[in-house]
Specification:
The protein has 788 residues and is an alpha/beta fold. It has three domains: 4-368, TIM Barrel; 372-419 and 455-597, Glycoside hydrolase family 3 C-terminal domain (Rossmann fold, 3-Layer(aba) Sandwich); 646-778, Immunoglobulins (Immunoglobulin-like), CATH 2.60.40. It is built from 23 helices and 29 strands. The strands form seven sheets. It has a seven-stranded parallel beta sheet with strand order 1-4-5-6-7-8-11. The protein has a six-stranded mixed beta sheet with strand order 12-17-16-15-13-14, sandwiched between helices. A hairpin with a 2-residue loop joins strand 9 and strand 10 (255-256). Helix 6 (127-143) packs antiparallel against helix 16 and helix 12 (298-308) crosses helix 13 (322-329). The protein is globular, with a radius of gyration of 26 Å. The protein starts with 11 loop residues before the first helix and ends in a 10-residue tail after the last strand. 57% of the residues are buried.
């Protein structure tokens, strides 16, 4: 009987209940916590002595074996096996641990593929690529013994000042939803035993805080919260079967998310039926006491978080250890609440097959890493993420035989600057600073080797791309945040020698001082950081044509550049293959087809500026604009140019009248009317012009990226579910109302090429199980790029 929970022929429910019946209070509480990997290491070796001190009663999770160490993949896999062996063989009940890792732009570990940062991935408008990226992350993580990815970010963000914009899929709930669904499918697969648990974060409203400041409160009415910010989470829970949720650090209307019964119990579990685990953001349970001042001590913080619905405390045990045990022993916390929480944690472990497969085959790790196919995918995503913002007189693409090129800027000759804040080389920098920041233990030794950023730079990629006769000159000009007139003078001198200047400016992403984008690196200005604006203007004044390549983590306000420079490319933070992708685009080996997933403001004073505002929004009544500038963004949501042109024709809306449970079929022909092959992103927007509550002026409801050779025409078919056209009414019920709906199809939220309408008939209907995805088809092909 004592081994029933080890019997795989029994149901998961039976095994869980039997195991709980055998556990004492300390063992139960141990399942609700995590420890950093280095807490059981003696330098770089597993220490059973430290393990006896930290995890003798078991542990719920292990924090970042790969991401918080200098282990290569093989070393990480061996350490994972040693930790699991200790838990299986040296603890009373032998319960394995879930190992979690970060994976915002790839599995965050030494030797893993460094994909473009999320805002760039969103610029591809290619859910299929997102799923493929998730599959690579899954494959790499599983090979080294990791089980849970702390991604994707499902934050809808409307404030470019916020440092974490780079980690998001942008401003639109539909685009965030589709990218999130694809990412989760790539990670978890249809059977999570073959995948890793995805974690939707940060639940919810994190991306529109006071002043764009990290952890600051957002101010969101509940209807808007549900209509906009909860939508991606709801879809990924209901449809994507998301395995885990992470609440945000912030508060909503006075209640920190980690203590919110409304979010974590009423909405997440009761309304949506979420059955996965809720993990805390790092240190956030203790912050109910030290940061929000809601709890008087760690014990009260533990009780608040646990009763609200936070199942596991990350990254280490501060409140869910001794303080939690003492609460139970004093009778101040019901053991039934603890049992219900432990039940969810154990269910996740059994569903993952951890009891049958606690170890990985370390001998096969080398097959997974340094994989040419993975690197090729990183390059493809980087290529598709690049957005052409301006191309005056079609100066791009450049001729590879050009005589002299000047490559200038702080991001021109740095591989490190191509990476997002949660890439391993960037994030590992923070660990040595954690004692001062979070008062936590740090590893005794982290071998931070400069070779971690041995990535081809844009300067090197350009040198590889041009003819042997071309001279390629270089000058940094200025640093990201620091610089001098001397450096600018040198850049000017170099620019005067050249036929063309390629100017690489923008951000350095990370989490430490000296970076300009990333977590907790919020900005009060959206100009180029440091002296970069002065560099741009000085180089422009030379008279040499200038092509600017922006390598940045957030939208930057660049109206002067847009007015004066010859061409501008938005490359975001394009990852390890970003330099080659940029060179491909500059010299015409790839035609840029990326589109902006977020509006680019003309100035910081426009914030928030977003396309799907209400009828009374988006302008100052009655004048329209600001005194200093227009109210319109510099570049709108969905915007992007190409080296070719596209013509739209033959809009057809089948069935002009539809019932609530029907779908509306919308067809459009798109032709490449230019002279080179290229990609168009066809965007479907819908507007409800008369409803019982005010509705946005337009909402993205479908999109399809289409490859076309010159003269080629394809028919794109959108199958729009009527149930996706609803909103939360005055009683906060999701309803679809009858009436006429306007259809807009175009190349951006502002570049609408064709319009039409259809009617929804019947009565106002309250809907519980709506559809979230508009499936799309090419030329009647039944193969859809709809997510599910």
């Amino acid at each position: 009987m004592s081994e029933l929970y080890r019997d795989p022929s029994r149901s998961t429910e039976e095994r869980v209940e039997h195991l709980i019946s055998l556990m004492n209070v300390e063992e139960k509480c141990a399942q609700l916590g995590s420890i950093w990997v280095y807490e059981v290491l003696d330098r770089t070796s597993f220490s059973s002595i430290k393990a006896d001190r930290r995890i003798k009663q078991g542990v719920g999770q292990i924090t970042r074996i790969g991401g918080a160490s200098s282990f290569d993949p093989l070393e990480g896999a061996k350490i994972a096996n040693e930790i699991q062996s200790y838990l299986v063989n040296s603890t009373r009940l032998g319960i394995p641990a879930l190992v979690h890792e970060e994976s915002c732009s790839g599995y965050m570990a030494k030797g893993a593929t460094l994909f473009p940062q999320t805002i760039g991935v969103a610029s591809t408008w290619s859910p299929d690529l997102v799923e493929a990226m998730g599959a690579v992350i899954r494959t790499q993580m599983k090979s080294v013994g990791a089980h849970q990815a702390l991604a994707p970010l499902l934050d809808v963000t409307r404030d470019a000042r916020w440092g974490r914009v780079e980690e998001t899929f942008g401003e639109d709930p539909y685009l965030v939803t589709q990218m999130g669904l694809s990412y989760v499918k790539g990670l978890q697969t249809d059977d999570v035993r073959n995948g890793v648990i995805a974690t939707g974060k940060h639940f919810v409203g994190y991306g529109i805080s006071e002043g764009g400041m990290n952890w600051a409160p957002p101010h969101i009415p509940e209807r808007e919260l549900r209509d906009v910010f909860l939508q991606p989470f709801e879809a990924v829970v209901r449809v994507g079967k998301l395995g885990s949720i992470m609440p945000g650090y912030h508060e909503l209307d006075g209640m920190p998310c980690h203590a919110s019964h409304l979010l974590l119990r009423k909405i997440l579990r009761d309304e949506w039926g979420f059955t996965g685990i809720v993990v805390s953001d790092y240190f956030a349970v203790e912050m109910l006491h030290s940061y929000h001042h809601l709890a008087k001590d760690k014990s009260q913080a533990a009780r608040m978080a646990l009763t609200a619905g936070v199942d596991i405390e990350l990254p280490s045990i501060y409140c869910y250890g001794t303080p939690l045990v003492e609460l139970i022993e004093r009778g101040e916390l019901s053991v039934e609440i603890v049992d219900a929480t432990v039940r969810r944690v154990l269910m996740a472990k059994f569903r993952m097959g951890l009891f049958e497969r606690p170890y990985v085959d370390a001998s096969r790790v080398s097959e997974v890493f340094s994989n040419k196919e993975h690197r090729a995918l990183a390059r493809k995503i980087a290529q598709q993420s690049i957005v052409l913002l301006k191309n005056e007189e079609n100066i791009l693409p450049l001729n590879k035989d050009i005589a002299t090129i000047a490559v200038i800027g702080p991001n021109a000759n740095s591989g490190r600057h191509l990476l997002g804040d949660y890439a391993y080389p960037c994030h590992i920098e923070t660990l040595q600073d954690m004692t001062n920041t979070f008062h936590t233990a740090v590893p005794e030794k982290i071998d931070l080797d400069e070779k971690l950023v041995d990535i081809l730079t844009v300067f090197e990629a350009i040198c590889d791309k041009v003819s042997p006769q071309t001279r390629v000159l270089f000058a940094e000009g200025t640093g990201t945040l620091t610089g001098s007139q001397e450096g600018i003078n040198k850049a000017v001198s170099v620019a005067k020698e050249a036929d063309i200047v390629i100017l690489l400016v923008g951000d350095k992403a990370g989490l430490i001082d000296g970076c300009s984008s990333g977590e907790s690196l919020d900005r009060a200005s959206l100009d180029l950081p440091g002296m970069q604006s002065a560099l741009v203007q000085a180089v422009y004044a030379c008279g040499t044509p200038v092509v600017a390549v922006l390598i940045n983590g957030r939208p930057l306000s660049i109206p002067w550049m847009n007015e004066h420079l010859t061409a501008i490319l938005e490359a975001w933070l394009p990852g390890e293959e970003g330099a080659r992708a940029i060179a491909d685009v500059l010299f015409g080996d790839y035609n840029p087809g990326g589109r902006l997933p977020i509006s680019v403001p003309q100035g910081v004073g426009q914030i928030p500026v977003y396309y799907n505002h209400k009828p009374s929004g988006g302008r100052s009544h009655w004048k329209g604009g600001y005194v200093e500038m227009s109210a319109k963004p510099l570049y709108p949501f969905g915007y992007g140019l190409s080296y070719t042109t596209f013509t739209y024709s033959n809009l057809c809306i089948r069935g002009g009248s539809a019932a609530v449970w029907d779908s509306v079929t919308i067809e459009i022909d798109v032709m490449n009317s230019g002279s080179v092959a290229g990609d168009e992103v066809v965007q479907l927007y819908v507007h409800d012009p008369c409803a019982s509550l005010t509705r946005p002026v337009k909402e993205l409801k479908g999109f399809r990226r289409v490859e076309l050779v010159p003269g080629e025409k394809k028919t794109i078919t959108f199958v729009l579910p009527v149930s996706s056209l609803g909103f939360y009414d005055a009683s906060l019920n999701y309803v679809v109302e009858p009436g006429e709906f306007e259809v807009m199809i175009g190349s951006s939220s502002e570049d609408i090429r064709m319009t039409g309408s259809f009617t929804v008939h019947g009565d106002t209907t309250c809907i519980q199980d709506r559809e979230y995805t508009t499936k799309t088809f090419l030329n009647g092909d039944e193969t859809s790029n709809g997510v599910l």
